[in-house]
Structures are given as C-alpha cells and as structure tokens.
Write a structure and sequence with these properties.
Elements (H helix, E strand, L loop, with lengths): L1 H18 L1 E7 L1 E14 L1 E8 L5 E6 L6 E2 L4 E5 L2 H25 L5 H23 L2 E3 L4 E6 L6 E2 L5 E16 L11 E6 L6 E9 L9 E8 L11 E17 L4 E2 L6 E7 L2 E13 L2 E6 L6 E5 L10 E3 L3
Parallel strand pairs: 1-20
Antiparallel strand pairs: 1-19, 2-14, 3-10, 4-6, 4-9, 5-8, 6-7, 8-10, 10-13, 11-12, 11-14, 12-13, 14-18, 15-16, 16-17, 17-18
Helix pairs in contact: 2-3
Length: 324
C-alpha cells in the first residue's frame, strides 16, 4: 500500500509540472516620454489671389500658364484696351486745352474759372484712367505660382477668375485641438509634420495663430500652423499629420512583443505574472516608441509581463519563467 501511494504522489507531481507553460518575461519600467498629440489637416496656401477685372470684357492676351512662377507686379493678362485708348486721347486733348488756356489767362484772355474747370476734368479723367488701366492690365499682387487658368486668348471674361495665383512659402495648416489643451498651446510653439507623400520624413513649422473661441459642438479650437517651404517640396492640398509636443512625462513602457491583440476586436492586452500564474490585463496604448509601447493604463510600474510564450496562456495558467 505504501508503494502504491508513493507512485500516485509522484504521478500527481509530474502532471503539475507538465501543465506549466514556459514563458519569457520582462519588468515594466517607468521612462520619460514626450507628451505628443497628433492631428490631421490639409496643407493650404498662405495667400490665394483670383485674377479678375471689375467688368466683363474680351481678353486680348494671357501671358502665363498653369505652373508658371510669377513675381509681384508682373503683368499677367491684357484685356481689350479700346476704352483706355479713347480716354488716353481725351486726356491728351484736355492737357492741350489746359496749356492753351493757361497762356490766355496770363494775358487776361480767359477767366480763371474756365482754367480751373479744365484742370478738374483732367484730374477726374486721370483717376478714371488709373482704374481702367488696372482692369485692362491685370498684374499679380503677390509672388507665387499660377494654379488655375480658365480662359484662352480672345475669350470674353464672365464670372470665373481668369487666373489663380497662390503663394507657396510659407504654407499653412489649420488643426482642431481639444479644449483641454487650450492653455497649453502657445504662439511660436515648434511643430513637426509628416506628409503622406514623403512617408516618415519630418518637416517643421510653428504655431502662428490660436483661434480665440471654442467650438461648442466639437469642444475644439482652431490652431493655424505656418510651414516653412523654402525647399518648395510641399504643395497645397497635401495630407499632413501635425504633431504638437506638450512636454515630457514618466510613463510605463513595455516591449511591443508583450502586447497582444484580442481576436475580433481592437482591444489590446498583456499577461502579467503574479505568484507563478498568468493574469490577463487589458491595456490602453499610447505612442509606439521604436520596439516598445507607452502604456496609458493597464500595467503598473514593476509588474512582470510575458514577452514570449503567449500562445498557450489563459487566465490562471501556471507558468515557468525561462528568461535567457
């Protein structure tokens, strides 16, 4: 009987050893982590000018095309100039009359009132001609790039702008930031940007304008970011991910191999080890830091978490730690 009892106890001990799952573990550590918030936005031109005359008219000549770089004050469009030519002729006639009347006034051959009337007509006509000229010879008010052309030579201008010119340096992006950060965003704060077209390459900018009110529906406020574009690689319309840095905090950090994804959902979890037993713990992830994750909640500093051997683990599984 003693012999049988001994064999039974040995078999029980052997079974207990067999159910232990071998795992590798690590200790959750506190590390200083940048407090970052990332927002999405479309890049916009700093200034957009639509080149149009005040009145409908025939377009004589368009001197630029889409993609051309233009300077401030450069002649872009020549409109039909018949009216300007008529006023130029009228001005020349009035100036001749004024010169003749001025000579007659010296010898008493004409009244001062007549001379003054002609002078007034000249001044009024010059003002009108300036307006006509500005709407006959259309010039660029900024240095930039032509991004749209809606007419050809000889067309009659109606409603759509003849050209659109956009200033490309600097550019801007407007992001919507949570009201909880209203007092933390400052004008001049450095900003990093990533553009989908350039992958992980970072571009720089600065907070230029903070909107003074909070949107009651979304509880966010607008922040305008100026983007340095001296390289001319950034273009309006590009999709950007804008990151603001609010400081540095101590956070729990664990290897990414410790974090598992719950099948059928987006939940993430880890297995922590307590007294040789696996314990399921749901976690909230923060930033990815290389091959580690910042843990917002779910793991305490100093906890031992499984990094390899998850496959056979469930809540309460006995484990054997075999860290190399």
């Amino acid at each position: 009987m003693v012999s049988c009892s001994g064999k039974k106890q040995e078999a029980t001990t052997s079974n207990e050893e067999e159910v232990k799952v071998k795992v590798n573990t690590t200790i959750a550590q506190l590390r200083p982590v940048d407090e970052l918030s990332t927002y999405t936005a479309n890049v916009q031109a700093e200034v957009i000018n639509h080149i149009t005359p005040l009145m409908p008219g025939r377009i004589e000549k368009i001197y630029v095309n889409i993609g051309d770089r233009v300077g401030k004050g450069q002649l872009l469009v020549q409109m039909e100039s018949t009216n300007l030519q008529l006023q130029t002729t009228q001005l020349a006639n009035l100036e001749r009359d004024y010169a003749r009347y001025s000579e007659l006034l010296k010898v008493g051959g004409i009244a001062q009132q007549t001379v003054d009337q002609v002078k007034t007509q000249i001044d009024v006509l010059k003002t009108n001609m300036k307006n006509v000229q500005d709407n006959t010879q259309l010039r660029s008010p900024i240095s930039g790039v032509v991004t749209a052309r809606n007419y050809d030579d000889g067309n009659v201008f109606a409603q759509m702008p003849i050209l659109t010119v956009q200033q490309l340096n600097p550019l801007k992006a407007v992001i919507n930031v949570s009201e909880s950060n209203f007092t933390r965003v400052k004008v001049g704060m450095p900003v990093s940007l990533k553009l989908d077209v350039y992958g992980d390459e970072e571009f720089t900018g600065r907070v230029r304008l903070i909107y003074p009110t909070i949107d009651a529906a979304t509880h966010t406020f607008g922040v305008e970011v100026a983007i340095n574009n001296q390289s001319n690689r950034v273009r309006p319309g590009m999709y950007a991910r804008v990151t603001l840095k609010f400081g540095v905090n101590n956070r729990v950090v664990i290897p990414d191999t410790a974090v598992q994804k719950q099948t059928g959902s987006n939940d993430r979890y880890v297995f922590a080890i307590e007294n040789g037993v696996a314990k399921y713990q749901k976690v909230e992830l923060g930033q990815r830091l290389g091959d580690h994750y910042e843990i917002i909640s779910g793991v305490a500093p100093g906890q031992e978490v499984v990094t390899a051997g998850h496959t056979r683990l469930i809540e309460g599984t006995l484990v054997e730690i075999i860290n190399n």
